[in-house]
From TrEMBL:
Keywords: Lyase. The lineage of its organism: Bacteria, Pseudomonadati, Pseudomonadota, Gammaproteobacteria, Lysobacterales. GO terms for molecular function: lyase activity. The keyword Chloroplast does not apply. It comes from the Bacteria. This is Deoxyribodipyrimidine photolyase-related protein.
Length: 512
């Protein structure tokens, strides 16, 4: 072959830059399912299944499009265990003149493939990933000379540059941001008439994958019984269409709300399809903007949605690629507690955590506030080592790929980068969870109590967190109010809180 075109499991787009100038007579596509991608973190069954099912459907699409393909299946007798070994074998067998690919999302994968190319004396041509509005170079230019990075300015620049929700030079509706309208909670009755999400019954190809995952990764966390994710471009487009029609009009209002037994609410559930590149962010944003233009969705909801994709998604990618590999090691709060074993089972009497983890294991999904203010918050307050928190998030969610997971986990939720991504730690008591969800009324703990028999562990640990980090937090103007409240506590109360927190670490923190 002239070029061996490398396609990774999260690069499933027939129009990707890797295929520019592809000549079916001379070039060959190479894809490989390798065990290491499922085992380097203890990847959940739904996550493994989604990647493999989507890869196999993409292989079909490639063949249909007439592109020659070399494809290693995980269950091939001679399957190589990791990407580097598999690629080395392919080079030896097919003798390409060069390697071509769209730049990978993961730093680790890029290093591995570069190493193989170097050893083989072959050029590895890396092409820009067009599945983003920005390049890493754009972000680096934006970040240059700034001490701290904030989403807001980056996002406004992109709105202007791409003319999205703009009215001449001004933001449509006169405001850049409708966040205040996007913090609604449900009343005591909870959500009513939430539209059913679209489900995709596994076809024969996906069922094969489900069987393979069930037997090969039997001891991995999570379950496959409810698997219904879109695994092809056609399905992903259908998901997008259904979201825009049914959920987008209420998306913003209930964006931060949580309810027991309601994993889906008004969210889009499109992150996995976007990250696998079954969808392009531009078509997702356009569909939402058009819905507003046609009077099908209010501006506040559409802006809230666009901000997540045009803003956050691009922004975290920029952070990842400008900060790796050091970012992985960050631990600004010097946290060293082990991740509690119940994160892998959901077996805890804290209702918010039990429910969030149960749906995570069943579907590979939880929405942003569950990730940030339930599982993330508890790990932050407990003082779990950031790397262990990272390994959990990367393992359990179907949309988890490192470039997006790592900054969200280390930066936003654990404050491990010391404030590069978030202006203050997302620390809160159980009362925040109570305000935003229906979890607390059916919990044996009381979010208003910080010590005593029925004290909510979040509330105890919140005060313990403030005590432990008081010196550092005092320097942060955005934490002033919280620190002032802390200073009202006398030494006896502080001692009681610290003892209660130690007991929680001891009793609830047991790793398995
Ligand atoms: P919606 O609420 O419908 O949002 C629409 C889209 O916006 C999402 O599909 C996603 O593409 C994008 N988006 C929203 N928030 C973010 C964000 N903070 N960063 C980047 N993109 C965002 N997202 C991932 O895609 N993969 C991850 O591995 C991941 N790990 C996370 C870990 C932690 C600790 C936290 C706090 C957040 C993480 N997120 C991750 C971001 C966010 O929680 C998910 O993108 C979102 O919950 C996916 O569900 P959805 O598609 O229904 O999103
Ligand atoms: Fe979670 Fe505390 Fe509320 Fe129980 S009381 S659901 S542990 S926040």
């Amino acid at each position: 072959a002239r070029s061996l075109v490398i396609v990774l499991g999260d690069q499933l787009d027939l129009a990707a830059s890797a295929f520019d100038g592809f000549d079916a007579a001379r070039d060959t596509v190479w894809m490989a399912e390798v065990a290491e991608e499922s085992t380097h973190v203890w990847s959940s069954k739904p996550r493994i299944a989604l990647f493999l099912a989507a890869m196999r459907h993409f292989a079909l699409a490639l063949r249909k499009a007439g592109r020659t393909l070399i494809y290693q299946q995980l269950d091939d007798a001679d399957a190589a265990p990791d990407l580097a070994t598999a690629l080395r074998a392919a080079i030896a067998k097919h003798g390409p003149e060069r390697l071509v690919m769209t730049a990978p999302g993961d730093w680790r994968v890029l290093q591995a493939l570069r190493g193989v190319a170097r050893d083989a004396g072959l050029e590895l041509e890396l092409r820009d990933d067009r599945h983003f509005y920005t390049t890493v170079r754009d972000f680096a230019a934006h970040a240059k000379g700034r001490k701290t990075l904030r989403l807001e300015y980056f996002y406004r620049e992109l709105r202007k540059r791409h003319d999205i929700l703009m009215d001449g030079g001004k933001p449509l509706g006169g405001q850049w941001n409708y966040d205040v309208e996007n913090r609604g909670a449900f009343d005591a009755e909870g959500p009513r008439d939430v539209p059913e999400p679209i489900r995709f019954e596994p076809d024969a190809l996906t069922r094969e994958v489900l069987d393979l995952v069930a037997s090969r990764f039997a001891d991995h966390p999570g379950s496959l019984d409810a698997f219904a994710w879109p695994v092809s471009r056609e399905q992903a487009l259908e998901s997008l269409m259904r979201f825009v029609r049914d959920r987008l009009p209420q998306f913003g209002r209930y964006q931060d709300a949580m309810w027991p037994g309601q994993p889906w609410l008004y969210h889009s559930h499109l992150s996995a399809a976007l990250n696998l590149k079954l969808l392009d962010p531009r078509e997702v944003v356009s569909a939402a903007v058009e819905a507003h233009e046609d009077g099908r969705a209010p501006l506040a909801d559409v802006e809230g949605f666009v901000r997540q994709i045009l803003g956050w998604r691009e922004y975290v990618r920029g952070i990842y690629w400008t900060r790796m590999p050091d970012y992985l090691e960050s631990n600004a709060l010097d946290a060293h507690v082990d991740l509690p074993g119940f994160y892998w089972t959901g077996d805890t009497d804290m209702h918010c955590l039990a429910d969030t983890i149960a749906q995570t294991l069943e579907h590979g999904y939880a929405h942003h506030i569950q990730r940030l203010m339930v599982t993330g918050l508890y790990a932050l307050l407990l003082g779990v080592e950031p790397k262990q928190v990272h390994a959990w998030y990367l393992a359990v969610y179907v949309d988890a790929v490192e470039w997006v997971e790592l900054p969200n986990t280390l930066g936003m939720s654990q404050f491990a980068d010391g404030g590069l991504m978030a202006s203050k730690p997302y620390a809160a008591t159980g009362q925040y969870i109570d305000r935003m969800s229906g979890y607390c009324k059916d919990c044996r703990y009381d979010p208003k109590q910080r010590t005593g028999e029925t004290a909510c562990p979040f509330s105890t640990l919140y005060w313990d967190f403030l005590i432990r980090h008081a010196d550092r937090l005092r320097e942060n103007p955005r934490m002033a109010l919280q620190v002032r409240n802390l200073e009202r506590l006398d030494d006896v109360e502080k001692r009681t809180i610290r003892d209660a927190a130690q007991l929680i670490r001891h009793e609830k923190g047991t790793p398995t």
